[in-house]
Amino acid sequence: MTDPVTDGTAAAGKPTAASRTTLSHIMTHNDTNLLGTVHGGVVMKLVDDAAGAVAGRHSGGPAVTASMDEMVFLVPVRVGDLVHVHAQCNWTGRTSMEIGVKVMAERWNESAPPTHVGSAYLVFAAVDEQGRPRPVPPVIPENEDDRRRRQEAQIRRTHRLARRRAIRELRESRIAEGLDVA
Ligand SMILES: CC(C)(COP(=O)(O)OP(=O)(O)OC[C@H]1O[C@@H](n2cnc3c(N)ncnc32)[C@H](O)[C@@H]1OP(=O)(O)O)[C@@H](O)C(=O)NCCC(=O)NCCS
Hints:
Elements: E1 14-15, E2 21-26, H1 40-59, E3 63-73, E4 82-92, E5 96-106, E6 115-126, E7 139-140, H2 144-176
Bound molecules: coenzyme A (COA).
Protein name: Acyl-CoA hydrolase
GO molecular function, one term: long-chain fatty acyl-CoA hydrolase activity
Keywords: Hydrolase
């Protein structure tokens, strides 16, 4: 399979650093669940916000969340924690971008290095004023970490497409067998 970035045929792209973003937020009592720790949905909103900022910057215009997957919560976030959401564009297709997000928390009462509390991968589609997908510039990886993230994103992309295709085919075959209605 040809790769426009590595074979040098890609249109002028944008380096990863041009859109890399960090969003920081202090957690308050408004953000808690019944256990008193921070609600996962609050962290997901920050993840979507940070990824959206990267997608908008990379594509130079509006972009919408098409999917969010592999959202993992590793350690609870607590009230008072200073949360940093680091996001960068890992991969670009024709009109879509995968944004990788890493969530770190600094405990309000500990002078220790930030704790990795979660991460996620989101796909954004760049859209025009009518909400139709529009082309994005290729992302140009700048170091080995960026290149590894790009290769891993390509694997996730392949799996997303295969999973969607397999489920669509299963649904179509169940309808054809009369097991489900269209
Ligand atoms: C995302 C959206 C623009 C895709 O539109 P579409 O008509 O399906 O267009 P396409 O099939 O050409 O998809 C556009 C790109 O998005 C990608 N994409 C679409 N759905 C996807 C999904 N579920 N997961 C991953 N990628 C997806 C496609 O692979 C394509 O990428 P490529 O051009 O780089 O190959 C459209 O589904 C949409 O507007 N969804 C709502 C988005 C939204 O409102 N988000 C906020 C939620 S409140």
